[in-house]
Write a structure and sequence with these properties.
Radius of gyration: 24 Å
Shape: elongated
Organism: Cellulosimicrobium protaetiae
InterPro entries: FAD/NAD-bd_sf (IPR036188), FAD/NAD-binding_dom (IPR023753), Ferredoxin-NADP_redctase_2 (IPR050097)
Helix content: 25-40%
Oligomer: single chain
CATH topology of the largest domain: FAD/NAD(P)-binding domain
Protein name: NAD(P)/FAD-dependent oxidoreductase
Catalytic activity: [thioredoxin]-dithiol + NADP(+) = [thioredoxin]-disulfide + NADPH + H(+)
Strand content: 25-35%
CATH superfamily of the largest domain: FAD/NAD(P)-binding domain
CATH architecture of the largest domain: 3-Layer(bba) Sandwich
Keywords: Flavoprotein, Oxidoreductase
Length: 327
């Protein structure tokens, strides 16, 4: 990896070195765009043992996947730095300046935000310590690993009932703990009864955890229920501070907040793009990879148009305007 000086003007600076950011870097570098990836080293799926539904790499360890992605991007000439971006400023007419937490600056014509999101977990002791192992939220990412086991659904909102239906496909031993969720309607009660799902009223005080293995759900009154896994519904909040600094506004979603962008990843802020979980709260690894490629292709196309327009402008400018006046 060669680190260039602060005076370098990159075609694209990508903030975030996860599946979306690295996939965009590969697409751009293969089109001979100068690219720098700035990665703070905090992948969302780091606690998980494996990434799933990744065609050809099913179950790959998340950091192993990212290491391979880095190598591929660097192999095409992209620069990858271990760096945290503290501030962002500028615009597409001049350039963007990203200030790193060590005081260094990176300048680029376009910015791709692949910053991911933060999972805001229920404030229940034991949830965080087993998160990504036996405390999970996505049946597609981790459901196979807990199939047939005793699965508790910790309800914190109305989406818990839907979560029950998905996990019930994976195991007949599903219990819904109402915790802080609103009362169930009659139709939901009928569904859960028909599926043999037990519903437990009362607030959950804690999860008993050994290492990263959940052993039981304990209610505020001390009642304990033995379980093997717990599904929760986090609030998904995009890491959108840089987007807001650049003039953007995050949008609310029933599950959290995200960076609004069109299907290619272009935001309403000229020159600023977004890909992965920062703009799609529900994107799994495969979807983030695809979004990164699409954003990379879109940015390359936008830059190609800008380059062509600049070339036309230079051609139309009289030659005398580019020469020094006679002395």
């Amino acid at each position: 990896m060669t680190i260039t000086s602060d005076n370098t003007l990159y075609d694209v600076a990508i903030v975030g070195g996860g599946p979306a950011g690295l996939s965009a870097a590969v697409a751009l570098a293969r089109s001979l765009r100068s690219v720098v990836v700035l990665d703070a080293g905090e992948p969302r799926n780091a606690p998980a043992e494996g990434a799933h539904n990744v065609l050809g790499r099913e179950g790959v360890a998340p950091r192993e996947l990212l290491a391979a992605g880095r190598a591929e991007a660097e192999g095409y000439g992209a620069e990858v730095r271990d760096a945290r971006v503290a501030h962002a400023a500028g615009d597409a007419e001049t350039s963007f300046t990203l200030t790193l937490d060590d005081g260094a600056h990176v300048r680029a014509r376009r910015v791709l935000l692949a910053t991911g999101l933060v999972d805001e977990l229920p404030d229940v002791p034991g949830v965080r310590s087993a998160w990504g192992s036996t405390v999970l939220h996505c049946p597609f990412c981790h459901g196979w690993e807990v199939r047939g086991q005793r699965i508790a659904i910790l309800a914190t909102g109305p989406a818990a009932a839907h979560q029950v239906l998905l996990f019930r496909q994976l195991s007949p031993h599903v219990t819904l703990f109402q915790h802080t969720a609103p009362e169930l309607d009659d139709a939901t009660w009928e569904q859960l009864s028909a599926l043999g799902v037990r519903v437990v009223e009362g607030e959950v005080a804690r999860l008993d955890v050994e290492g990263r293995a959940v052993r039981s759900v304990v209610l505020a009154d001390g009642t304990s229920f033995a379980v093997d896994a717990v599904a929760v519904g986090p609030r998904f909040v995009a890491r959108g501070e840089l987007f807001e600094e650049l003039g953007g506004t995050l949008e609310d979603h029933p599950a959290g907040r995200f960076v609004p962008a069109d299907p290619r990843g272009m935001t309403a802020v000229p020159g600023v793009w977004a890909a992965g979980n920062s703009r799609d709260l529900m994107a799994m690894v495969g979807a983030s990879v695809a979004a990164g490629v699409m954003a990379g292709a879109g940015i390359h196309g936008e830059l190609a148009q800008a380059d062509a327009a600049a070339a036309v402008a230079r051609r139309r400018t009289p030659f005398a305007a580019h020469t020094e006046p006679a002395v």
